[in-house]
Amino acid sequence: MNAIKKFLATDQQSWSLLVARLALGLVVLPHGAQKALGLFGGYGFEGTLGAFQSMGMPLIIGVLVILAEFVGSLGILVGAGTRFMAFSVGLTMAGAAVLGGHINNGFFMNWFGQQKGEGLEYFILVVGLAIAILIGGAGRYAVDNLISKKLK
């Protein structure tokens, strides 16, 4: 029980953690919805898994990536299992930056189509927010806070 309390512990009055949590969840959710549901021009669950497998990604890793981006972003938004969800999103995005070849495309996003692909700036922001939430917790207005109160 003590481990669960530590896992859920956060400054329940922190506006900055709330802002970080909402920013991360809102930025990652559309990417997860593309992969899981086919929204916003995405391939959907099966199509995304097929694309990942054509790149040599094992099926289980593909499923975990989709879950991290979709379920993880929803969990982050409502503050449920926030640290685990932030870790999952952060690890997924760090993996995408390195294994997805973005590390070879420089720093900047490919705003004008003048470079080979997307650079690292998006990934740095997402991983940075995920680490901040992993360290600090959910902040204000989180399901984790309600669970934490029930455990006291």
Chain-wise SSE layout:
Layout: H1 2-8, H2 15-37, H3 44-54, H4 59-78, H5 82-99, H6 121-136, H7 143-151
Helix pairs in contact: 2-3, 2-4, 2-6, 3-4, 4-5, 5-6
Transmembrane segments: 59-77, 84-103, 123-143
Subcellular location: Cell membrane
Keywords: Cell membrane, Membrane, Transmembrane, Transmembrane helix
Notable traits:
152 residues; mainly alpha; 68% helix; 0% strand; DoxX-like_oxidoreductase; transmembrane
Description:
It comes from Bacteroides luti. The protein is mainly alpha-helical. It has one domain (2-151). Helix content is 68%, strand content 0%. It contains 7 helices and no strands. Helix 2 runs antiparallel to helix 4 (59-78).
Q: Report the mean per-residue pLDDT as an integer.
A: 92
Please summarize the sheet with the most strands: none
Count of helical stretches: 7
Please trace the helix and strand order, writing H or E for each element.
Answer: HHHHHHH
Low-confidence stretches: none
How many beta-strand runs? Answer: 0
Distance between the termini: 10 Å
Structural class: mainly alpha
| Beta fraction | under 5%
Number of domains: 1
Mind telling me the C-alpha Rg?
16 Å
| Basic shape | globular
What fraction, in percent, of the residue positions are helical?
55-70%
Subcellular location: Cell membrane
Transmembrane segments: 59-77, 84-103, 123-143
Keywords: Cell membrane, Membrane, Transmembrane, Transmembrane helix
Membrane topology: Multi-pass membrane protein
